[in-house]
TrEMBL record:
Location of the Oxidoreductase molybdopterin-binding domain: 34-165
Residues spanning the membrane: none
Record protein name field: Molybdopterin-dependent oxidoreductase
Length: 216
């Protein structure tokens, strides 16, 4: 059973993210591909269907938004990123310097995980949520699910994977934390996480309203 992390309140799962991306409603391609670049010897484009056949797994976990709400009891299904990485290693040959991995969505949103964090148990490229195919609202065709990390790390509509030698803050910019671990309240690289709680709780209604308005 899910337990609420420090500073979080339970809420239903609903589409949410940076308001700047709210109006971007990417069309899911009929035959999606994932482009793999960065600190690799042989960049490649890999059909998403090839990745989703690597070995199915489930993760039962919550989605914890940095803005202090958590949707609990979610059942994600997809392919462990560890299996994806092992499959890609022979094709693109990541260099030894590749310690970080940046995921980018069809809407242009991107976020970065430490490679060791991305390879942890439970991290998936998911295409099923609660027994049903993932919808566009929740990140189809593939969504990164990283249960130990805040939701801004779980990129929707994954279409690109970039191996990197250094950290890229991604679309969240200065507001992001390099690790973003929920248990440690790594809400941002600036100020302790507990100090962000009242700020995010104050800003959340306005941020949610702005996001919903832009979505139309």
């Amino acid at each position: 059973m899910d337990v609420l992390p420090p500073g979080q309140s339970a809420a239903p799962l609903a589409p949410f993210g940076l308001p700047a991306f709210a109006a971007r409603r990417p069309r899911v391609p009929a035959a999606p591909v994932v482009t793999v670049t960065g600190a690799v010897r042989r960049p490649a484009q890999v059909p998403a269907a090839e990745l989703t056949r690597l070995g199915r797994a489930e993760t039962h976990s919550g989605l914890h938004c940095v803005t202090t709400w958590s949707a609990l009891g979610l059942r994600w299904e997809g392919v462990p990123f560890a299996a994806v990485h092992a499959h890609l290693a022979g094709r693109v040959a990541p260099g030894r310097a590749a310690r970080w991995v940046t995921f980018t969505g069809l809407d242009g949103y991107r976020s970065t995980l430490l490679l060791d964090d991305a390879l942890a148990p439970g991290v998936l490229l998911a295409d099923v949520l609660d027994g049903a195919p993932l919808t566009a609202d929740h990140g189809a065709p593939l969504r990164l699910v990283a249960p130990a990390h805040y939701g801004y790390k779980s990129v929707k509509h994954v279409c690109a994977i970039e191996y990197r030698a250094g950290y890229d803050p991604g679309s969240a910019g200065w507001k992001a934390h390099p690790r973003g671990r929920v248990a440690l309240e790594e809400r941002s690289r600036y100020l302790p996480g507990r100090l962000w709680r009242p700020l995010w709780r104050t800003l959340l209604p306005r941020a949610r309203a702005a996001y919903d308005d832009l979505r139309g």
